[in-house]
Write a structure and sequence with these properties.
This protein is an alpha/beta fold and 361 residues long. It contains 15 helices and 9 strands. A 5-stranded parallel β-sheet has the order 2-1-3-4-5, sandwiched between helices.
């Protein structure tokens, strides 16, 4: 991988490098999940529900797994973002506990509670000496590590991989669901996504490439990112988080069609303010539902005079796995270019560290 971050950019934790290695991360995550879960997750074929717990990157991975398996999963898939475990969780429930750092307190608590109720808990994230790995070992849970941090190979900072581990945490969830008899094997789709991103990486990182151009046009406006329900909605939330974390700037996200039932009405006033401060980014892809194109057109018409600009980003890929990782890859790069444009170091997040502590991913 010869592509590198632009020169003379402040990046003390190696976020550019960690982001650029997403294709390798996807491939390595498949190998790590194969080693962790073997051929079958215990209890496979008897699960009546799935419950997933995660915050930050782990939370987005849980939402991504739910979206990516929605078409063929035969049982309910519930996603939680805290330590509260719903009453249905118990014997017959597959619980996915995800923390890319391996130390998210709420996720650890939820995993402990679920295990006490007799649920089958699969843990994903962190390293062998982390809290999640220790909990899994004590409780006899299958555990999949986050693949080797990028500084082990390419000089990136110690904290960057957990922040940038969306692929490393999402892929094992897809593998675990397949091994539990709850979803089809998506290994081929993950490999295809890794190959496609590796081919696109050079163009996306090249000077003047699409992410840099979009970041320049967004400038100091506040990005509002819309995606249709499913993988684009999860990708829109990821864009929002990456602008927050990397560029240290406000950003917001919402989902179609839900936003056309309420949020869209909010653009009826205040256009003299919003068109100076906000830009809309629409995440599109070839797998959208039949009404989605019309809804996006209605959104464009409604906000045409109240936004600084409206941009469309088309996710590439032959299936939902490819499109999801393509959209999230581009979004992360846009956030890094926004940071670079303002001379902001994308790595440190002191406000979040002070609020949550170091193991919040």
């Amino acid at each position: 991988m010869n592509e590198r971050a632009p020169l003379d950019i402040l990046d003390t934790l190696g976020m550019w490098e960690a982001t650029a290695t997403l294709p390798e991360q996807l491939s390595e995550a498949l190998g790590a999940a194969d080693d962790a879960f073997g051929r079958v997750v215990p209890g496979g074929g008897a699960f009546r529900a799935v419950a997933a717990f995660g915050l930050g990157t782990g939370g987005v991975a849980c939402a991504a797994a739910a979206a990516l398996t929605a078409r063929d999963l035969a049982v309910p898939f519930w996603v939680g973002q805290g330590s509260a475990v719903p009453a249905f969780v118990g014997a017959g429930t597959l619980v996915l506990a995800v923390s890319s750092s391996g130390g998210t307190a709420e996720t650890l608590t939820a995993a402990e509670k679920a295990a006490e109720r007799g649920a089958m808990v699969v843990a994903v994230g962190g390293e062998p000496d982390g809290a999640l790995a220790a909990l899994a070992a004590d409780a006899g849970m299958p555990w999949c590590p986050t693949p080797a941090r990028s500084e082990d190979r390419r000089g990136a900072g110690a904290g960057s991989m957990a922040r940038a581990a969306l692929g490393a945490t999402t892929v094992p969830l897809l593998v675990a669901l397949a091994r539990a008899g709850l979803g089809r094997d998506r290994a081929a789709a993950v490999r295809a996504a890794a190959d496609a991103l590796a081919r696109r990486r050079g163009a996306l990182l090249a000077p003047g490439g699409a992410p840099e151009a979009l970041a320049r046009r967004l400038g100091r406006t506040i990005p509002l990112v819309y995606g249709s329900s499913g993988v684009a909605a999860v990708a829109a939330h990821w864009w929002k988080t990456q602008v927050n974390l990397n560029a240290k700037a406000p950003a917001f996200a919402a989902t179609l069609p839900a936003l056309t039932h309420d949020e869209l009405a909010g653009w009826g006033q205040g256009g003299d303010v919003t068109r100076q401060t906000m830009s809309l980014v629409l995440l599109r892809h070839a797998g959208e539902g039949p009404r989605t194109g019309g809804l996006f057109a209605a959104v464009r018409a409604a906000v045409d005079e109240v936004m600084a600009d409206v941009f469309e980003v088309q996710g590439e890929g032959d299936d939902e796995v490819g499109r999801f990782f393509d959209l999230t890859f581009v979004g992360t790069l846009v956030s890094l270019y926004l940071a670079a444009g303002e001379g902001v170091d994308p790595g440190p997040v002191p406000a979040v560290d002070e609020a949550q502590g170091p193991a919040w991913f």
